[in-house]
Amino acid sequence: MRSTFMGLEASKRGLFTQQTALYTTGHNIANANTEGYSRQRIIMSPTLGYPGAGLNAPMTPGYIGTGVKAESVQRVRDEFIDRQYRQETNKLGYWETKASAISQMEDVMSEPSEYGLDEAFRLFWSALQDVSANPDDTAARKVVVQRAIHLADSFNYIDTQLKQIQGNLGNEIKVSVEQINSILEQIANINKEIQAVEPNGYVPNDLYDKRDLLVDQLSGYLPVSIERVPSGGNASKVAEGSYTIKLNVKDNSGSYSEIVLVEGGNYATLRALDTSGKLVDGDEDTDPANPQLAYLPFHQLEISMGNKTQTIGQENFQEFKGKLLSLIDSYGYSTDGTNNSIKGYFPEMLQSLDKLASAFVQAFNKVHEAGYTLGKSDDPDTSVNRISFFDPAGLTAGTIKVNDALVKDPNLVAASSVQGEEGNGKWALILANLQSMPINNKESIGKIKDKDGNETTVELPDNLGLDGATFQSYYQGLIGQLGVDGQKANLLKTNTETIRLTVENNRASMSSVSLDEEMTDMIRFQQAYSANARMITVIDELLDKVINGMGRAGL
Questions:
Q1: Which residue numbers in the chain have pLDDT < 50?
Q2: Which end of the chain is more exposed for a tag (fewer CB within 10 A), N or C?
Q3: For residue 283, what are the domain limits?
Q4: Under DSSP, is residue 304 helix (H, G, I), strand (E, B) or coil?
Q5: Which pLDDT belongs to residue 157?
Q6: What is the Cα–Cα distance from 373 to 357, expressed in whole angstroms?
Q7: Residue/partner pairs of 140-144 with CB below 8 Å, 24 or more apart
Q8: Is residue 361 part of a domain?
């Protein structure tokens, strides 16, 4: 025979379950604006019906329901969408950082501009043409020297500013690695908390959210994958376990592999090392063998976990790369562990500017040394006739400078092509014509005459490295490539942002808290709670009638 109080028990379970659902709804509403929070829901299921199976089970028309129970509190989350979001976050981290680095370079080089290097070249050539027309005008010669100083200063400024930004990128690599290490430690600590809670049958949804938010942040820096490891014990079927975080890399053969960054409560520590084995930190650390290097390039990422240490280079990152690799690509990296083969956006631009400065100084000096100066050409033995216009030691963009002797005495500008003809400005015109001349090895420039009438053909030096480009067209080619790279980075950044926004909206539509929906649920659960309470009142009145309203027979 069924229990007299069976209906009370079923309604009591209904009260407790609807109450739990209301508390969960309140928790959702309270965290509507919490970053990374996933809405939670109660999974309700009916309790076992009456009677149970057995020889002594009473005969009934069928199972009689005994109420409801809350099986679990689950968060609403889609693992597939999470994976998509992290892949797009990883790509966005790369292109966003690349676009920012190129934008800073464009701000420094600032072309076309009234104040850029191209304009400094133009003013310098124009001043030389003025000297060719008025070779005995000291004022015109002073203007040439000042324009040359301005040109050298423009080279120096660009070199200094680009190296300063490169140093900032090195510092950002250091900060990013520290941030990665902090995230890995936090994930490992959350894993420990989850491993302590789950075996008792609880589902710590808020810890899951906090951990997933950290994984989202980590994906912006590195291409990582996740493996779930059960906690064991009396863990719920919906428990997610601890995370094993792995870095996706490819070896020298091109095959893909994984390096463990977090395993349970254990986590790895990362260090970005340069070619000297020191941390990349953006502080100047010049290689004595390569004094033009302001910063030693990145060499390898050292990953230490317990007693095991592994290293990977720039080439070991997978297709999905992240912010850290983008910083490395911009800052500069070594391809062979030495400072002899350096790649990267900023080092390659600095090397190109050094090549331009070196070719310009060597070519211009050789042509200038062949000409004759004002007021000194009657002395064939004087070294003044073979003076360098630019300091021969300044063969880089950072060191190019005008010869101090010309700064002190502008009459030393070699404008004449014939010894003894002070009013001859043909050689200044030859110098000015270098602006439109393809710079090839041993290119014939012009002829000069000594006082005896002997002619000598002047040629450009060997190995200038501009491959037939003029000085300005070579520089304009650098600017053009910079513009193309910047456009590509911004385009891919925008595309990736759009795709990630779409994925983020899909995730939000599933996991984020909708106050309208929660208010509807609140009313629904409140009504169910009230109905269960009313049911208890009804059963109480029924029992009161049976117990107190019915008399005892025979009295």
A1: 1, 377-378, 380-384
A2: C
A3: 82-113+162-344+473-503
A4: strand
A5: 94
A6: 24
A7: 141/374, 141/410, 141/411, 141/413, 141/415, 142/410, 144/410, 144/413
A8: yes
